Amino acid sequence: MSEKKTPVLEVRDLGIDFGGLTAVNDFNMDVYEEEIAGLIGPNGAGKTTVFNMLTKVYQPSRGTIHFLGQDTAKMSVVDMNRAGIARTFQNIRLFSNMSVLDNVRIGMHNKITYNELEAVFRLPKYRQQEQAVEEEAMELLKIFDLDKDASLIAGNLPYGAQRRLEIARAMATNPKLLLLDEPAAGMNPQETEDLMKMIRFVRDHFRIAVLLIEHDMRLVMGICERITVLNYGMMLAEGTPAEIQANPQVIKAYLGE
Amino acid sequence: MKNKKSFVGNLFSRTYRSRTISFLIIIVGYILIELLLKTGNLSSMFQSLLVPVTCYIVAALGLNLNVGVSGELNLGQAGFMSLGAFMGICVSGALSSAIPNGLIRLVIAIVLGALIASVLGFVIGVPVLKLQGDYLAIVTLAFGEIIKSLINNMYVGIDPNGFQFSFVENKLSLAPGGKMLISGPMGATGTNRIATFSVGVVLILIALVIVYNLIYSRSGRAIQACRDNRIAAESVGIHVANTKMLAFVVSAGLAGAAGALYGLNYSTLIPAKFDFNLSILILVYVVLGGLGNMTGTIISTIVLVLLPELLRGLQDYRMLIYAVILIVMMILSNNEKVKNLLSLLHQKLSFGKTKEAEANE
């Protein structure tokens, strides 16, 4: 923890307006490599809006986002993913009519290099790559304890498993930074406990940075190494879990006067 | 997972079962019909339906890729068929002296028909597929009408100097030895009928290979991903517009190929044949067979083409009964109880298979 790490994500003076309404303003944040960072704040603080700007679902009105030292001003949603940012969604967005395995295989879309003709004629390149993709996808499913459900339709999975599948799909794109939007929402304490272990394992195994939004304070304080607090679209505080817990402004924002 | 499944086992595995059934239906159906033809047991009315049915199946398979798998409504499939048909007629007419062999001319006509329909599909798709919503339905609807009107007013002839085009009838003066290929609202007349049922069946098989192999590939998964959740698809790095374009262009191409075969099956063909009703008819085949279900598309096309002919004995009540049957089928196929009954039947039939799968685990 103490040694100097290089930032993968540098956000400076980020802001966005919807019509005349400023949703987020003057937002600054760094995420360092192999770090688990948290973004917390009361409902409506603009946390998901920040995620949507980081993935370019919304184009920021002001400020800069540098990812791996590269300016992302002109990049689209697809470009951001190809550059190495993967995400999950607050309201789960799976390909719900497709199998669990297919959901992960779709995540590997950009690893596959055969073209449509090679697919239609089932040439050797197609067979080799499909074989490799299936093996890799099954390995990934095993990590997320979904390998037994590989052939099930994703929409029929229980809630907790759908959340895990979304993370598996995001990991299939080989990200350097994983954004998790309320990964523990709707989970019971035991499931949350398992999820915490899983997030740590993913960070250690794939050596990636994780930035997560979460309301479950046990999870946030348990696994985040650094936390940023957002309130009314403005940055309220930043620091280690202990610092945040002791910060009077944060307590005020959450509990009121 | 470790020991490789046998080839036959693989054919009937869960993933490929519907594909195998589709191929079996077509091949068995072809053999049966050839037998009936050889023994002279097929009435001339049914014989006249053979080639059109294959054309409708190919166009419907393409449309199912667009509507069922990609989830974009397309109301102009008849327009793409029309393009393919009149392209095919012109190509065949132009090559009739150079290539006397009808089969080779037919294949060239089908390939070029597919090509022009795909190219036009691409041109239409570029602006439309970037938008979200039902714009493709609106634009393809207009496209179908535009193509119909255009060909309705087009005069194409060929003479030793090459192709002659005009939008005014009397302007077209052909050199001696020339002949008219398309004469406006009269359409194409005096076409050599080189289309055959066998070529139609081969075209269906090719269409099935293209559609199924595309679905079980990177692009096919991406197409379905864009249908299920556009935002999530983008978040894993899929270009939504390009992916939808692929489905649309392949669909248009198959319609073009089907149209070329259709056009070369009649000695006269009017442009008004490919109207909005035909587009809707093909859409009905797709919807009734089940969105994304290729086997269903084949079966529903065959049934719905044959039904009006089989009901001919009812005379005036024919289309009434046809409509009633259509509505009843639609209601039944959406009824929970009927669905449960079917899935129960399906489970019973594949019971042996599931046991085997359990034993493997």
Description:
The complex is a heterodimer of chains A (257) and B (361). In chain A, 39% of the residues lie in helices and 24% in strands. Chain A is α/β, with parallel strands linked by helices and 257 residues long. Chain A has a six-stranded mixed beta sheet, sandwiched between helices. In chain A, helix 3 (100-107) runs parallel beside helix 6. With 361 residues, chain B is mainly alpha-helical. Chain B starts with 6 loop residues before the first helix and ends with a helix. Chain B has one domain (23-284). In chain B, 69% of the residues lie in helices and 4% in strands. In chain B, helix 7 runs antiparallel to helix 10.
Order of helices and strands of chain A: EEEHEEHEHHHHEHEHEEHH
Main structural class of chain B: mainly alpha
Biggest beta sheet summary of chain A: 6 strands, mixed
Radius of gyration of chain A: 19 Å
Number of helices of chain A: 10
Strand order of the largest sheet of chain A: 6-7-8-3-9-10
Question: Strand tally of chain A, please?
Answer: 10
Q: Quickly count the domains of chain B.
A: 1
Greatest interface by residues involved: A-B, 36 and 26 residues
Report the biggest beta sheet of chain B as strand number plus sense, adding barrel if it closes: 3 strands, antiparallel
| CATH homologous superfamily designation of the largest domain in chain A | P-loop containing nucleotide triphosphate hydrolases
Average pLDDT reading of chain B: 88
Write a short abstract of this structure.
Chain A is an alpha/beta fold and 257 residues long. In chain A, 39% of the residues lie in helices and 24% in strands.
Describe how the helices and strands are arranged.
The complex is a heterodimer of chains A (257) and B (361).
Chain A: E1 7-18, E2 21-32, E3 36-40, H1 47-54, E4 62-67, E5 70-71, H2 77-83, E6 85-87, H3 100-107, H4 116-120, H5 124-143, H6 159-171, E7 177-181, H7 189-206, E8 209-213, H8 217-223, E9 226-231, E10 234-239, H9 241-246, H10 248-255
Parallel strand pairs in A: 3-8, 3-9, 6-7, 7-8
Antiparallel strand pairs in A: 1-2, 1-4, 4-5, 9-10
Helix pairs in contact in A: 3-6
Chain B: H1 7-11, H2 17-38, H3 44-69, H4 77-95, H5 102-128, H6 135-152, E1 155-159, E2 162-166, E3 179-183, H7 197-215, H8 218-228, H9 230-235, H10 240-263, H11 276-289, H12 294-310, H13 318-333, H14 336-349, H15 351-360
Antiparallel strand pairs in B: 1-2, 1-3
